[in-house]
Specification:
Blueprint lengths: L1 H8 L10 H16 L6 H32 L12 H47 L2 H5 L3 H43 L1 H48 L1 H6 L3 H53 L5 H43 L22 E8 L10 E8 L4 E5 L6 H8 L7 E6 L2 E2 L5 H7 E4 L10 H6 L7 H10 L3 H6 L17 H15 L3 E5 L7 H15 L3 E5 L11 E6 L2 E6 L1 H5 L5 H8 L4
Parallel strand pairs: 3-8, 3-9, 6-7, 7-8
Antiparallel strand pairs: 1-2, 1-4, 4-5, 9-10
The structure holds adenosine-5'-triphosphate (ATP) and magnesium ion (MG).
Length: 609
């Protein structure tokens, strides 16, 4: 899997530079891994395959029926498996036709049932895996790219399971059966036909491979342009504020033109390919039939047999012609499977994903400490963000972290939540190393009101309830009241059922924060992290938010990341962080007394001494 992993990092453009022999081995491995999702439905799958095989075989019988009919009309009986009369053959053909119709219905139904169910399973697992992956996985990837794995890649696989697989089996039966029947009718004619075959097949495969490369390029380009759409729509306010509509439009336009160019280049080759197949295939058939007519005139063949032969030749020819397309489809699915499997094989975080209420198994009272923590982000290993950070917050204390922008304050919050893990040093809860606790237990007892509050697109009530999914309406209202949010919520016509808009855009910054505070209150954590918003609120909403925060901090350990130093005068301890190092710590009086200290300097900047 090392190969798959590295290609994932290159942005999903794997496949082209891989050695061909390895690809085929890997192909089987990958496909067989995803086939385990079909395992639960294997009974039905085998039945569907059998029905498919049956209906293909029966389809193969029709040229024989037609040939037999023609010969019977001329009073000849060339096929001893068929009745001698036109009526007899017609009746038999009807019966066979009926069973063919019956079998086809079930095979289509069953294939779709199996594909839909197993695809739902794969989709669910991929999504579950995605949301439990470590944070640094997301740092290197764009949302659009991940999204396309769940939508486009899985749809491709679904297509293969419902259509391509069936089509391959059908065409294979038609090809092999067709050639067999051809040989039974006339060895000479068949040999004549088979002389042209290898040329056709080899050219088809080579051509197909080339076209596949082009279509992959077009796909990648298209994905790129989709990413542009997604990103600009998500950041539409930025686009407008910077009047960059023209820039984005031209960026998108350029990308789309490239997509079109690649696709058109592909179409040229595809067209060439089609002409070649048509000319080669029909040319071969005409030649062979002409030869067949010669045999008829020498009485080596009946007209019915020649007719039968011609039909089988068409079967064989079209089966051959369909293979490059099917092969390309399979190749696409293999690429899609690889990308999906890369996610499924990725190691997720160890969190429970049961629907059962997240119950706490190991209680954290509220003591939290860092012991000589060193940390860099996995995606940026050359920059040490935290350097030997140590501090302790005792149960119930308020500890503030201050420091210039980029000094690592929010990073400390991420470490407490165990979004990332320190490369060395220890984080302790209640004097025990954090690895003694399960991830679920830690995150259930630590709440964060983040720097940039993100709400989900639903209602205000749903957004508050996110802190405790089982909360009653009363609990939600109570939390909102304590968070100073009840008033503004009830001033909306729809009250708690107000839809907040995508990512909460319909609420003001202060309102969003109070919803986040209500959410945290509902969660009732032992440890609370407040990452103060850098954007300042007007003094009225600042007071409302501040009061809500005071309410939230009662009876628990609070870590306050503060930008406005006035809000932390009462803190039990203030830690001053600079470039990832703790350079001062103490309470307000102690720190302000340090003439050359950074805290005193920062306080002076805010005119607060
Ligand atoms: N996900 C990430 N991947 C890589 N580097 C990051 C990531 N997040 C932050 N950094 C880097 O880590 C350093 C510390 O960032 P952090 O967000 O902790 O700063 P901060 O003290 O919270 O700043 P601010 O006061 O502006 O919020 C910065 O240099 C930043 O560029
Ligand atoms: Mg920050």
């Amino acid at each position: 899997m090392a190969r798959g992993r590295s290609s994932l990092n290159s942005g999903g453009k794997q496949g082209e530079e891989l050695p061909k022999t390895k690809l085929s081995r890997q192909t089987l491995k990958n496909v067989s891994k995803l086939l385990s999702y079909v395992q639960p439905y294997r009974g039905k799958f085998i039945a569907a395959l059998f029905f498919l095989f049956l209906s293909s075989l029966v389809g193969l019988a029709f040229p024989s029926f037609l040939g037999g009919l023609i010969d019977a009309a001329q009073g000849k009986h060339t096929n001893k498996f068929l009745p001698a009369t036109v009526q007899g053959i017609g009746l038999l053909a009807l019966i066979v036709l009926f069973s063919q119709a019956f079998v086809s219905f079930f095979r289509i139904l069953w294939f779709v049932q199996i594909a839909e169910r197993s695809l739902a399973d794969i989709r669910r697992d991929t999504y579950f895996k995605l949301i439990t992956l470590r944070m640094d996985f997301f740092a290197n990837r764009r949302v659009g790219e991940l999204n396309s794995r769940i939508s486009a890649d899985l749809s491709q696989i679904q297509d293969t399971l419902t259509t391509t697989l069936a089509e391959i089996i059908r065409q294979l039966v038609l090809l092999i059966g067709g050639i067999t029947f051809l040989a039974i009718v006339s060895i000479k004619l068949t040999l004549a036909l088979l002389v042209v075959l290898p040329v056709l097949v080899v050219t088809a495969v080579l051509f197909g491979r080339f076209i596949r490369k082009l279509s992959r390029k077009a796909q990648d380009k298209l994905a790129e342009s989709n990413t542009i759409v997604e990103e600009t729509l998500q950041g539409i306010a930025n686009v407008k504020a910077f009047v960059n509509e023209a820039y984005e439009a031209s960026r998108y336009g350029k990308n789309i033109r490239e997509v079109a160019n690649i696709a058109i280049k592909g179409a040229k080759y595809r067209g060439l390919f089609a002409s070649f197949i048509v000319f080669g295939m029909f040319g071969a058939i005409v030649t062979v039939i002409a030869y067949g007519c010669l045999l008829v005139s020498h009485n080596e063949l009946t007209v019915g047999e020649l007719f039968k032969f011609a039909l089988y030749a068409v079967f064989v020819g079209s089966a051959m012609g369909s293979f490059p397309e099917l092969y390309a489809n399979i190749q696409k699915s293999v690429g899609a499977s690889e990308r999906v499997l890369e996610i499924l094989d990725e190691k997720g975080e160890d969190v429970s994903i049961d629907h059962a209420e997240n119950e706490i198994k190991q209680k954290i009272e509220g003591n939290i400490a860092f012991d000589n923590v060193n940390f860099h982000y996995p995606s940026r290993s050359e920059i040490e963000v935290l350097k030997g950070v140590s501090f302790e917050a005792q149960t119930g204390q308020k500890v503030a972290i201050v420091g210039p922008s980029g000094s690592g304050k929010s990073t400390m919050a991420s470490l407490i939540l165990h979004f990332y893990h320190p490369q060395s040093g220890t984080i302790l809860f209640d004097h025990q190393p954090s690895d003694k606790y399960s991830l679920t237990d830690i995150r259930n007892q630590v709440a964060i009101v983040p720097q940039d509050v993100m709400l989900f697109g639903g209602t205000i009530q749903e957004n508050i309830a996110y802190g405790k999914l089982s909360a009653t309406k009363e609990e939600i209202i109570q939390a909102a009241q304590r968070a100073n949010a009840h008033h503004f919520i009830t001033s909306f016509p729809e009250g708690y059922d107000t839809v907040v808009g995508e990512r909460g855009v319909k609420l003001s910054g202060g309102q969003r924060q109070r919803v986040a505070i209500a959410r945290a209150l509902l969660k009732n954590p032992s440890i609370l992290i407040l990452d103060e918003a850098t954007s300042s609120l007007d003094s009225e909403s600042e007071r409302l938010v501040q009061d809500a925060l005071e309410e939230l901090m009662k009876n628990r350990t609070s870590i306050i990341i503060a930008h406005r130093l006035s809000t932390i005068r009462e803190a039990d301890k203030i830690i001053v962080l600079e470039k990832g190092k703790v350079i001062e710590s103490g309470n307000h009086e102690e720190l302000i007394g340090n003439e050359n200290g950074l805290y005193r300097y920062l306080s002076q900047l805010q005119f607060e001494v």
